[in-house]
Specification:
The protein is α/β, with parallel strands linked by helices. It contains 13 helices and twelve strands. The strands form three sheets. A six-stranded parallel sheet has the order 2-1-3-4-5-11. Strands 7-6-8-9 form a four-stranded parallel sheet, with helices on both faces. The longest helix is centred in the middle third of the chain and has 16 residues, at 189-204. The protein is elongated. The model is unreliable at 45-51 (pLDDT under 50).
Length: 332
């Protein structure tokens, strides 16, 4: 109340009377004091006593098909989130979201049980579910590695658009002209962003895009195909939406008698392959995503939101960098 009084220029007694509805201040001043109190995040004594105590926990919600195993990309991203929470004196509670719960917009169990102070939702989620979490959750919500242009919400994403633009330009500057894009742009917003970054690079370099250069790597539900290519294509390079897809593509090409990078070049995205799966993580030229920075920005922004402190609202984009390895060869 002293802070409010100092802001308005009145006594503590006047603030107390205005907020408690007691006589002794003009109606104009009462309205002014209440407006300032609301702007400063003031909570009345009765409301504060009825509000649930802080738990020190943050719920981390992730579609179960994204997690799969702890060494997956999203498994590693979750670990970065947990570490960032711990460094900021919070604990993470993971809840894997079933497809039917997402489709029916069911509220996460950690939210129903009042076990958390806020929520972080990781990975691509449906528009209806995102809208429900943003508009109906009584707790602060932040998203990580997902966004929906039609809904305004707070999220942290990697720079898929510009990152793939740089990768495609990297290939063009090394003499490649017929460049395919591997990824289903209907599956996730991030794959679509990467596709348009690829298209931007082609256009700026005077290369006419052809529809047959777009190659799907998964179903619209996100299930990656075991085989992406079944026949040779008249292409001299491929831009893949992730390293996992790039690895499958390289295997398919080699089975077809096509050598990488001697015959064609291949680039990926994320600079991440699951460990222990017989894949060469040091082979694929890629765009490295700064998962640690993404997690840190998301966690710190959410904590500020919980504490009603000023934070960056809307979409925050975390840049990465190209990592040159062994799957690109100059054609100049």
């Amino acid at each position: 109340m002293a802070d409010i009084a100092a802001r308005v220029g009145v006594s503590n007694v006047a603030v107390s009377k205005a907020l408690s509805g007691k006589p002794g201040v003009s109606e104009e001043m009462r309205i002014r004091i209440k407006q300032v109190a609301e702007q400063m995040g003031y909570v009345s004594g009765s409301t504060a006593r009825s509000a649930p105590a802080a738990t020190g926990n943050i719920g981390v919600i992730m579609p179960e098909h994204y997690y799969e195993y702890s060494v997956s990309f999203y498994g590693q991203l979750y670990e970065k989130v947990v570490r960032a929470l711990y460094d900021n004196h919070y604990y993470g509670i993971l809840e894997l979201l079933k497809k039917e719960d997402e489709q029916e917009s069911n509220v996460p169990k950690v939210l129903q049980d009042a076990k958390v102070d806020g929520l972080i939702l990781v990975g691509q989620l449906g528009e209806k579910y995102i809208d429900t979490m943003v508009s109906q959750s009584r707790l602060p919500v932040f998203f990580l590695d997902t966004y929906m242009p039609s809904i305004a919400f707070d999220t942290v994403i990697s720079d898929g658009y510009y990152g793939t633009y740089l990768l495609t330009d990297h290939l063009i500057r090394r003499g490649h002209r017929k460049i395919g894009y591997v990824g289903n742009i209907d599956a996730t917003s991030s794959i679509a962003d990467r596709f348009w970054g690829y298209r931007k690079a082609l256009r700026e370099n005077g290369i006419d895009y052809e529809d047959e250069w777009e190659i799907s790597d998964r179903s619209k539900y996100g299930k990656t195909y075991a085989k992406i290519l079944t026949e040779r294509r008249d292409l001299d390079a491929y831009v893949c939406n992730c390293d996992f897809t790039a690895n499958i593509l390289i295997q398919n090409l080699e089975e077809l008698g096509v050598s990488v990078p001697d015959d064609v070049s291949v680039v990926g995205f994320d600079d991440f392959l699951p460990a222990g799966m017989g894949m060469d993580s040091e082979r694929i030229t890629s765009y490295s995503v700064d998962m640690e920075r993404m997690a840190e920005v998301c966690v710190k922004s959410l904590i500020k939101k919980i504490k009603r402190e000023k934070y960056v609202e809307g979409v925050q984009i975390i840049t990465g960098r190209i990592v040159e390895k062994k799957t690109v060869r100059s054609r100049l």
